[in-house]
Amino acid sequence: MEPMTKTMPEDNAPFCFHQYRAKPNWAQIVLSLYITFVFCQSLFYKFSDAPETQHIFGTLDGWAAGFGFPGLFISGGIFSAKVIGSFELISSILLILSLITQRAVLRVAGSLLSMGIITGAIFFHLFTPLGIVVQDDGGLLFIMACGVWLSAACILFLDRHYIFKTLGLRF
User: Which candidate, 28, 14, 52, places its Cα nearest to that of 107?
Assistant: First the structure.
């Protein structure tokens, strides 16, 4: 069994990011669980084609059709609810596995994927007819999206030493 390492290897030692184990601190645990909670609680809606999901993705598809891209967000489209939900599930699995295996690479990959997904969601809330308040939710979806983005950014910030070391950059 591989020994647990809490510090970075010396600068002259070879560094294998995928093999590096780092026990997550309490902030990384809480932030990872928050992202996973938000993504997993929305999976039912996305995979069951719930009325809320139909409204959101229908609004986005109508907006995209105005630019000549009809069908982009409907079922079978490249950005359909099931496609987005699948990536949210993958991100959640990576984050949970990072907590179980204590592999920093899984935490970073899950955070990057989460940030990419949720950046799109925030963009569509701000710059499309979808808006911040969706079906009188008081902006809850938007607020949770911003929370996921901030959580992923904080995880990446906390893992910055591992990221820079992997990229061969000094920090």
Answer: 28
For residues 152 and 114, the answer to whether their CB atoms sit within 8 Å is yes
Q: How many degrees, rounded to 5, is the angle at CA 17 between CA 108 and CA 39?
A: 20
By the 8 A CB rule, do 36 and 95 touch? yes
pLDDT digits (tens, 9 = 90+) for 4-35: 444 444 555 555 555 667 788 999 999 999 99
Bridge partners (DSSP) of residue 21 are 103
> Is a pLDDT exceeding 60 seen at residue 68?
yes
CB 155 within 8 A of CB 5: no
Give the separation between CA 116 and CA 19, rounded to whole angstroms: 24
- For residue 21, which phi and psi values (nearest 5 degrees)? -105, 135
* pLDDT tens digits for range 74-83: 999 999 999 9
| Encoded tokens for 123 | 């963009």
CA 77, CA 22: separation in Å to the nearest integer? 39
Counting Cα atoms < 13 Å in the Cβ hemisphere of 148 gives: 31
**Across all residues in the chain, what is the average pLDDT?**
90
